[in-house]
């Protein structure tokens, strides 16, 4: 089954377009998980247990796993998410000459979808694009301030580079498996791109920690109801805020009975809150 059909079903099942970003920064994982063989996996498992009812997808960013233990933690995480029926979008931003991308494309034997970088052109993406079952999200207008350096440049035709990328991605979509990555910090570009490529689903990162526009993310990110709005730190580290709050509260009150698992509960609440907030804007 095509990735976007599976995503459509998942969105309907959980009534949510939330993508939970699994970016387990090791310096922020709670201390009591440090003694586990794979602390990142122990952390992710608890986050998945607490959030899966609200998750249309999980999006682990490969940067947080690029060491031997990390890859093991990532494999365990993906298998566990699949056990909860949640598709996994590996945020790897890959692409290279064809011979090398064929190796990268093996990542799609484990994950259901991937983010890719269009800078090297169609042949650098072909091994991803020809996988009919997998989703391929092409970086188009990214959420970071420096995204303007290249993506906003105006071409001789009058279009911006990011608009040309969207037009190319539309051409590359022969298997109905292509989406775009467009940051929630760029609401005008989101609107412009939705008009330009009405059929492509978007992955919209940048709500939460980056302060992006949740309403625009939903209004323009979805194509026929399908798309993803991602928050990573805002969900998985939501417990840090409540910890700080309870530390200040505990000066006045009795200490709470906390087994160290409050962080997971807080992530579940944050995912649910984001789902509700985004659902206000869905049709
Ligand atoms: O491809 C991405 O997912 C991505 C594209 C983009 O333009 N901006 C962006 O923040 N991301 C990723 O989305 C996640 C955002 O994380 P938070 O800012 O913690 O919600 C990180 O994994 C980023 O690498």
Automatic annotation (TrEMBL):
One of its GO terms (molecular function) is orotidine-5'-phosphate decarboxylase activity. It catalyses: orotidine 5'-phosphate + H(+) = UMP + CO2. The keyword Nucleotidyltransferase does not apply. Residues 239-283 are annotated as: Disordered. Residues 17-247 form the Orotidine 5'-phosphate decarboxylase domain. The active site is at 93 (proton donor). InterPro entries: Aldolase_TIM (IPR013785), OMPdecase_AS (IPR018089), OMPdecase_type-2 (IPR011995), OMPdeCOase_dom (IPR001754), RibuloseP-bd_barrel (IPR011060). Pathway: Pyrimidine metabolism; UMP biosynthesis via de novo pathway; UMP from orotate: step 2/2. The keyword Transferase does not apply. Residues 272-283 have a biased composition (Basic residues). Its EC number is 4.1.1.23. Keywords: Decarboxylase, Lyase, Pyrimidine biosynthesis. Belongs to the OMP decarboxylase family. Type 2 subfamily. This is Orotidine 5'-phosphate decarboxylase.
């Amino acid at each position: 089954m095509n990735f976007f059909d599976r995503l459509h079903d998942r969105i309907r099942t959980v009534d949510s377009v939330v993508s939970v970003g699994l970016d387990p920064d090791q310096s922020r994982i709670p201390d009591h998980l440090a003694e586990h063989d794979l602390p990142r996996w122990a952390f992710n498992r608890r986050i998945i247990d607490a959030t899966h009812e609200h998750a249309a997808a999980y999006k682990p960013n490969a940067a947080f796993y690029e060491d031997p233990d990390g890859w093991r933690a990532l494999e365990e995480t993906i298998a566990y998410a699949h056990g909860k029926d949640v598709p996994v979008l590996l945020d790897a931003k890959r692409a290279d000459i064809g011979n090398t991308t064929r190796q990268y494309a093996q990542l799609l034997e484990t994950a259901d979808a991937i983010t890719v970088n269009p800078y090297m052109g169609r042949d650098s993406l072909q091994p991803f694009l020809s996988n009919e079952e997998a989703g391929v999200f092409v970086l188009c207008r990214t959420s970071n301030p420096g995204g303007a350096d290249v993506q906003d440049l105006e071409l001789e035709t009058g279009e911006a580079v990011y608009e040309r990328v969207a037009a190319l991605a539309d051409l590359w979509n022969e298997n109905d498996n292509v989406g775009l990555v467009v940051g929630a910090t760029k609401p005008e570009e989101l609107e412009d791109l939705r008009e330009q490529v009405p059929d492509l689903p978007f992955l919209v990162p940048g709500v939460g920690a980056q302060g992006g526009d949740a309403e625009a993310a939903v209004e323009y990110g979805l194509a026929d109801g399908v798309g993803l709005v991602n928050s990573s730190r805002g969900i998985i580290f939501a417990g840090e805020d409540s910890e700080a709050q309870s530390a200040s509260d505990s000066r006045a009150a009795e200490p709470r009975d906390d087994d160290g698992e409050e962080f997971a509960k807080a992530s579940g609440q944050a995912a649910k809150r984001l789902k509700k907030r985004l659902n206000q804007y869905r049709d």
